[in-house]
Amino acid sequence: MPYEKVTDAIQYGNQLYNSYPKFFHALIPVATIVTAFAGIINTRHIKKQANLQREIEGNRYKIELFEKRFNVYENYKPSLMTGDIIPNISSEIKRDQFLRTLKVAVEESSKCLLVFQKKDNGVLKELIYKQKKLYKEIDAISYYYKDIAYTEAELSEKLSRIERQKELISSMNEVITALGKTDQLDSNQNSILNSLNVDKSICEHKLKYYRKTISDIIENFPSKYLELCDAYHNANLYMEKNLSLPELAFEDDKSFIMSSWLFTLSILKYLFVTSPKLERYLAWIVLPICSAFIFFLLHYSHA
């Protein structure tokens, strides 16, 4: 019984083909156009899906980058120096405390520079440069104090030797004078005394230089600290500006009519603007030929 239905369907199809042969001949180019059009739509759909997947992956990367930037920014904020209170670096305890804070700030700023890698991140580089420069200057104070202690000990030893040398020369001169041999005064001892006096002058100049340098660093610290605070402010504004969530890669829902219209426009744009040149040239050549063929075929079928 199913075989008879298939046979009847085939016979009915043959009758239609024999009755309307031109109509079926006209369907051949129509089917070609529809097939080509369907292929183009399918290609566009595949490319759209690939682009959408690429946008999703790109957004995932942007979100991960945002999370990293946000984390380092949150860790950076406690080290922010506002300039409301200028630290006291005169005492060793306060100075060491400030250096520890500044060291942590340099580490956090370096992390920010790592995740905010952009062409316009000069404010972060300037901040790190000023942090390291100020850290180096303040840290040098401790070394200058050590140099002062060493030089003072050296100066004390030189002064003791000078006193002993003077006493030695005085004793020798008394003995030589008592013997009446003033022509035998030892000039070598005077040379030793002169050398010790030169060493004493060098130590005194060193101490003067060390103390003057420490005084200059402490005196200039407030202005340099405020400059560093300005650099902090600029870097903070820069990072806040670049902390933004990426837009989603999904389109908003639209009405059926709007979607159909946009879809038609996108197909036409793809066919005549954005598609590869080979597909564009093929569409421009095939579509007019098929349309002309259908027109003449229908025209002569009515004639």
Automatic annotation (TrEMBL):
It comes from Gluconobacter frateurii NRIC 0228. Keywords: Membrane, Transmembrane, Transmembrane helix. It comes from the Bacteria. This is Uncharacterized protein. The keyword Transmembrane helix applies. The chain crosses the membrane at residues 23-41, 281-300.
